[in-house]
Amino acid sequence: MDVVNSILESEDAQLDSKKSTKVHKDIEPEIDLGTLLLSDSNALDTKELRSNPNTYLQQLTRDNVQLLINNIWSLPTERVEEAIVAQLPAPQYILPRTRVIPKSKPLTKWQQFAKEKGIRTNKKNRTKLKWDEELQKWMPRYGYQRSKAMEQKEWVVEVGKDNNPKEDPFTAMSASKRERQSKNELQRLRNIAKSKNIKLPRVGLPTVEHFPKPSQLSTAVTVAHKSTASLGKFQERLPKEKDAKGILTKLPSLKRKAKEIPLNLKEENEKNKNLINTILSNKSNILNIDSASSSTAKRKKVTTKTHKGSKKPKGGKGKRDMHMKVGGRKRR
């Protein structure tokens, strides 16, 4: 019986694999060939789904895919190399994306200039190696071997008429190389800031963007004058230049002004007399007599207070008989 059942199952599998391409549906499904979408609104067979869920869902999927393929091959086709391709129509439904549409990378300053001027570079088709006429061998355009090749080529440097004979030309070359590298790095950071719409401070004189009002410019000039070590005492000023209003009181370095030093003995004596008069006058409350007298009275009361009925326990002077005392020390 097992052999017969296996033969019957194999025949059923062959019949399933050779099913007809015609599929019957009670309600015709909606098909959007532009997005390859098929929506089936027919009711499911609940009994079949509960008894054999896997086989039922596989059959349902197979029928819907067959319908979609039938509609695709009803479209006009063309041959591309060795394949036959169907021309899909415009989509009817707009399907949502799972992720955000990637933004195009902004062009750098050089790329934008090359695009405006029509300059084309073939970096993709260019090989990494380049023939060096002086060394007579293939050398890379960049990297470790490139720097070694430059050391072999520039092992002797001629000192020109404009150069200083006492100056080392190799150090000058390395310094200029570092300057170029730092310039390229600065330009790269500027390109990143430009792509993210970040405004950078300009080098040189301030523009209207930084100081739209004239009062802001005068405030900046005043703060710059007072930011020196001498608080602007030896700073040169323009003719008819005045400090900004209300800014000197806000500066932390100018909130407390130092008192003037007396120039002679007479001024010093007057200053000391004024200090003594302010101390001895009734206006200055240096010592609060009421609070001082109340505190002394409280202290006297505390010292005169006695505790009746309480005596300090006397010690045993180090002698203790463990056989006579039982139960430990008495607690009070």
TrEMBL record:
Q: Which domain of life is it from?
A: Eukaryota
- Is Oxidoreductase among the key words of this record? no
Q: What is its main location?
A: nucleus
Q: Where is this region: Disordered?
A: 161-184, 291-332
**Which cellular compartments is it found in?**
Nucleus
UniProt keyword annotations, A-Z: Nucleus, Ribosome biogenesis
Keyword Nucleus listed: yes
Q: Where is the composition biased (Basic residues)?
A: 297-317
Function according to Swiss-Prot or TrEMBL = Involved in ribosomal large subunit assembly.
What family is this protein classified in? Belongs to the RRS1 family.
Tell me what this protein is called.
Ribosome biogenesis regulatory protein
